[in-house]
Amino acid sequence: MIYSFKGHIPVVHESSFVHPLAAVTGNVIIGKNCYIGPGAAIRGDWGEIILEDGVNVQENCTVHMFPGKSIVLKEGAHVGHGAVIHGANLGRNCLIGMNSVIMDDAEIGEECIVGAMAFVKAETKFEKRQLIVGNPAKAIKEVSDAMIAWKTAGTKLYQQLPADCHESLKEVEPLRAVPADRPKQEDFYKTLQEMKSNNKA
């Protein structure tokens, strides 16, 4: 669901995937290999929103801002299910945890990790590689090489997902029984488990 607004038409690179149940409105620019999940709303009605290459905005996320603001989600930013980004800028390769809220004029630094359900107050600024948790959110320690390697591996799966969706996602009628030849699920998560195990060694 792609909408123009006051003459602004969203720009979406052909390698990216916007789910038909997401809504992208107005002054929005989406770079290469981005994934926008169902239920996500990216509203560029009051200002410009730029998603650089490799960003994912997962299911039921909201990206918006107050009038007159423009925001950037930098390369590889990873926005988990249900998060709200309202007028905040996200640094390269950062992770925003599920159901967290990042408020206006906040700055999340490069390779920061924001924990699930964190609340980042307006105008709060975090330097790069901080682990950020709580309500109100605070940096509690520096993100380790192992943590950012695990995060980056997970984001790579989302950067592959647009191509997989273009290739195989289609609307269908449900089956009424489980077929004998039902395909086995590919074990994508094994990649992350192996990464976690290797980093502990």
From TrEMBL:
InterPro entries: Hexapep (IPR001451), Transf_Hexapept/Carb_Anhydrase (IPR050484), Trimer_LpxA-like_sf (IPR011004)
Superkingdom of this protein's organism: Bacteria
Pfam family, one: Hexapep
SUPFAM superfamilies, alphabetized: Trimeric LpxA-like enzymes (SSF51161)
Protein name (Swiss-Prot/TrEMBL): Carnitine operon protein CaiE
Organism of provenance: Patiriisocius marinus
